[in-house]
Amino acid sequence: MLRKSIAQLVTALGLVLFGAATAQAAEPIVIGQSAPLSGSNKDLGEDIRDGALAYFHKVNAEGGIHGRKIELVTLDDANSTDRSGTNTVELIEKHNVVALFGYASTTLSNPAMPHVEKHKVPFIAPFTGADYMREFRPLVFNHRAGYTDEMEKIVEHYTTFGLSRFAVLHHDDTVGKENLAAVERVLKARNLKPIAIASVKRTQKDIAKEVADVVKAKPEVVICTTLYQTTADFVKQARAQGLNAQYVSLSFAGSTALAGALGEAGLGVVMSQVVPTPTRASVPIVREYQEAIKAVAPQKVHSFTGLEAYIAAKILGEGLRRAGPNVTRASLVKALESINNYDLGGYTVSFSPRNHNGSKYVGLTILGRDLAFKD
Fold first, then answer.
1. Which residues of the chain have pLDDT under 50?
2. For position 9, what pLDDT does the model report?
3. Which of 122, 215, 339, 347 has the fewest Cβ atoms nearer than 10 Å?
């Protein structure tokens, strides 16, 4: 009788523990994001969010990861650094996120760093290639190539064709000066230096003097490292003044936004990209993205930013799988560091305990008559 009672007690306890484990497994995995869903960078923020949601929706429809659905909590920062910092605190302390994901720039990522370090939260896939974010940080994982990688590709391409007269347009701030320094390093390796440098404030509207100075120097290539509107204004004004140079922008500007701002005046403008062309369905990861985005946003135009966000979300998903059913912030960091030569379908990523910069992929695209950047 005693043995029977003990057996019943053990069985009952086992059911309770099983039920608790099942309940825990059913809880969603919460990922936090602060992004500009309003204001001047609204399109960029929406593309990042929607590209990630396309992947998470696909995974959730297949049963989630280890039986747990992924929930992305996105808070609007309106491209404000103050709001980005406040959002980060809310995501960590109120929503208890496992990780932070897809912040839209270095300037928006920077306010999050003290909170990331304090709470030991993985900070995954910031949409920036700035040196500041690519210096090794134990909790930061970059999924894409850096701006220096983009500069190298640009300069290599044009010097191969014998061009040597380069001008640089950059923002007069920390990130902008880093970009200028990166161009100068890449040129110096080829015994070259910029023949003209135009420095502008991010909020500066009148750039006539800067344009005139560059036009006067007669460069063969103008490398633009600025936001899309400044880049578009510069190209239009320089061309109107007769500067028949090659104009090339970093991926930083956002291809959809830049193409829209340039219009037909931008035909032939070149842009470096850190992911494959999002219309090239022959690439497996592109085809997967196209199918997934159609399920959540059928009218969405396929974009480089959306594809980049999808790739970043898929990398995060692989980390969550490797971390196991009871993922923690610490176990996710270790899981991501175990990803080596991971082929997502035509795009390969590698991390390690001492390297959190996953890819150096860079391609060049050109704005065609359909007002889209293509390779």
1. 1-7, 9-23, 25
2. 41
3. 339
